[in-house]
Specification:
It is a single chain. The protein has 440 residues and is of the alpha/beta class. The strands form two sheets. The chain has an eight-stranded mixed beta sheet, sandwiched between helices. Strands 11-10-9-12-13-14 form a six-stranded parallel beta sheet, with helices on both faces. Helix 14 links the parallel strand 9 and strand 10. The chain starts with a strand and ends in an 11-residue tail after the last strand. The protein binds nicotinamide-adenine-dinucleotide. The site of nicotinamide-adenine-dinucleotide has 26 residues, from helix 5.
C-alpha cells in the first residue's frame, strides 16, 4: 500500500521503516527541516536499536522516502498516519496543536479515498475533532475520507521489535473502508498470528490511555511497597516475585526503583486524568500514581542526603541518565529529576550514560559528564544507579570501590547483589530492601 507518515519521531520513524519492512511504500514527512536533512544524509535523529539498519534498508530499496513537504508526502497515499507529538500543556491536558496542524496539512492536499489514522496518543474524542476539521477544510471530500485510531504500544529501546512483532494491534474505526484498509496494511503480521482487536474509535483512544496508566500504576504500586518494605525490614524484590507469580497479577512492571519517566507515562497519566475530569468523572487514583512516582526520586535523594550528611561540595555520580536502558531519550528521566534535587542541595553531580550523555548535558548544563563509569566514580562520595543499563552488571566492583572517595552506593534500580556489595566493602542502599551493608 502507499502510506504517508506525518511526524518522524520515536513513533513515526519506527512506524515508517517497519511498514516498509512489511512490504509497503512509505513517505515520511516532518515539520522539522533539519530532521529531514539529517535523514537524507543517512543520519538518525535518535538512538533506537536496529532502527538505523531498517531505515537504511528502506531508503536503499527506494520504498522509504522522506520529505518536509507534506503536500507531496501525502499525495496519493491510501493511509496517512498522524504520529506527531502530544506533549502536556501547563494544565496537564494533551496539547493537540500538532495533531490539528497535521490534519489540516493533510486535508489541504488530500485527493480522496484516504484513511487518516491517529497513532499519536490522544484523549478520547480527538478523532471526532479530526473528522470535523477534515469536513471544514475539505467539505468536497466529506464521504471520501475515513478516520481510524491505531494507538502505538511500542517501547523505546525495543521499538523495532515491538512494531514487527507486536503483542496485538488495536484498530478503532467506524467505517468498513477504514477497517478494511487497516487489515490490508497489517496483513503480514496478522498472517503470522498477531491478534487484531477492532473497536469503535473512542474505545481505542481510551484503551491506550488506560493501558499506559495501568502500567504506571503497577510501577507506583511497587514503589509504595518499597517505602513500606524499607520501614518493615521486608524485601520488595521478593514481594514482587510473590505478586508476580500469581497469574492474575503478572510480574512485569513490578520493579521498584526510581520510578517511571519518558515521553509517555508522565504526560499520558495527566492527560487521562484531565480527560476524566472534563467528562465529569474524578479519577484521583491517577494523581496518586504520579505522586508516588515523584516520591520515588525523593526517597533516593533522601538516601544520598542521609549517607552524606551535607550535600555541599560532595561529588555524586549518577550511573545512567536515560529514562530507561537502550535509548538516548532523557525526557522526564528520573535520573535528571534526581540530579536537579542534588544540584539544588549544593552537590557536584557527574553523570555517565552509554547513549544519553549529550542529551542530558543539553537539558541540564550544570551536570558534569564522565566518559565511563570509573571516570564518574573517581573521587565520588556516592554513586546512584539510575538506569539499569546492562553494562552496569559487568562492573569491576573492586576497581569501583578503590576509585571512590567513599564506597557508598544507592541502587535506584536494585541492579546489584546486596550481599556481594557488602562483601566488597560498600555501604550499599538498595530500594525497598533491607540494608545488607548499612552506612558506617
Ligand atoms: N515515544 C514512545 O515511546 C511512544 C510510544 C507510544 C506512543 N507514543 C505517542 O506517539 C506520539 C509521538 O511520540 P514520539 O515519541 O514519536 O514524539 P517525538 O517528539 O519523538 O516526535 C514527534 C515528531 O513530530 C514532528 N512534528 C511535530 N509537529 C508536526 C507537524 N505539524 N507536522 C509534521 N511533523 C510534526 C516533530 O518534529 C517530531 O519529529 C505521542 O503522542 C506519544 O505519546 C510515543
Amino acid at each position: 500500500m502507499r502510506v504517508a507518515v506525518i511526524g518522524l519521531g520515536h513513533v513515526g520513524l519506527v512506524t515508517s521503516a517497519s511498514l516498509v519492512a512489511l512490504g509497503h511504500d512509505v513517505r515520511g514527512t516532518d515539520s522539522d527541516d533539519e530532521r529531514i536533512a539529517l535523514l537524507h544524509d543517512g543520519g538518525m535523529p535518535f538512538f533506537e536499536p536496529g532502527l538505523a539498519e531498517l531505515v537504511a534498508e528502506g531508503t536503499t530499496g527506494g520504498r522509504l522516502e522522506f520529505t518536509s513537504d507534506t503536500a507531496s508526502g501525502v499525495a496519493d497515499a491510501e493511509v496517512v498516519f498522524i504520529c506527531v507529538g502530544t506533549p502536556s500543556t501547563g494544565t496537564g491536558d494533551a496539547n493537540l496543536v500538532a495533531v490539528e496542524q497535521a490534519t489540516r496539512d493533510f486535508a489541504r492536499n488530500a485527493t480522496g479515498g484516504t484513511v487518516v489514522v491517529e497513532k499519536s496518543t490522544v484523549p478520547a474524542g480527538t478523532a471526532e475533532r479530526i473528522r470535523r476539521t477534515l469536513r471544514v477544510v475539505r467539505p468536497d471530500l466529506r464521504d471520501e475520507t475515513f478516520v481510524a485510531c491505531n494507538p502505538e504500544f511500542l517501547r523505546e529501546g525495543r521499538a523495532v521489535q515491538d512494531c514487527l512483532e507486536p503483542d496485538r494491534i488495536l484498530v478503532g474505526a467506524d467505517s468498513p473502508e477504514a477497517f478494511e484498509a487497516m487489515r490490508r496494511l497489517y496483513e503480514p503480521l496478522l498472517n503470522k498470528g498477531c491478534r487484531l482487536i477492532e473497536t469503535d474509535i473512542a474505545t481505542a483512544e481510551l484503551a491506550k490511555h488506560a493501558s499506559n496508566a495501568f502500567l504506571a500504576l503497577k510501577i507506583s504500586y511497587s514503589n509504595a511497597l518499597a517505602r513500606l518494605c524499607e520501614r518493615a525490614g521486608a524485601d520488595v524484590v521478593s514481594v514482587a516475585e510473590v505478586l508476580g507469580s500469581d497469574a492474575r497479577i503478572g510480574r512485569a512492571f513490578l520493579d521498584a526503583g526510581l520510578g517511571y519517566g519518558g515521553y509517555c507515562f508522565p504526560k499520558d497519566i495527566q492527560a487521562f486524568e484531565r480527560l476524566a475530569a472534563k467528562l465529569g468523572y474524578q479519577f484521583p487514583l491517577l494523581r496518586e500514581v504520579a505522586r508516588i512516582n515523584d516520591e520515588a526520586v525523593e526517597a533516593a535523594a533522601d538516601k544520598v542526603r542521609e549517607g552524606l550528611w551535607n550535600l555541599e561540595g560532595k561529588r555524586v555520580a549518577l550511573l545512567g541518565l536515560a529514562f530507561k536502558p537502550d535509548t538516548d531519550d532523557i525526557r522526564f528521566s528520573p535520573a535528571l529529576a534526581l540530579a536537579e534535587r542534588l544540584l539544588a542541595g549544593g552537590a557536584r553531580v557527574v553523570g555517565y550514560d552509554p547513549r544519553a550523555a549529550t542529551n542530558a548535558k543539553e537539558a541540564l548544563p550544570q551536570l558534569e559528564i564522565a566518559v565511563d563509569v570509573y571516570d564518574a566514580a573517581t573521587d565520588a562520595d556516592c554513586i546512584v544507579i539510575c538506569t539499569e543499563w546492562r553494562e552496569f552488571l559487568g562492573l569491576d566492583l573492586h576497581r569501583l570501590r578503590d576509585v571512590m572517595a567513599h564506597p557508598f552506593v544507592v541502587d535506584g534500580r536494585n541492579l546489584l547483589d546486596p550481599a556481594t556489595m557488602a562483601e566488597i566493602g560498600f555501604a550499599y542502599h538498595a530500594t525497598g530492601r533491607p540494608a545488607a551493608a548499612p552506612l558506617p
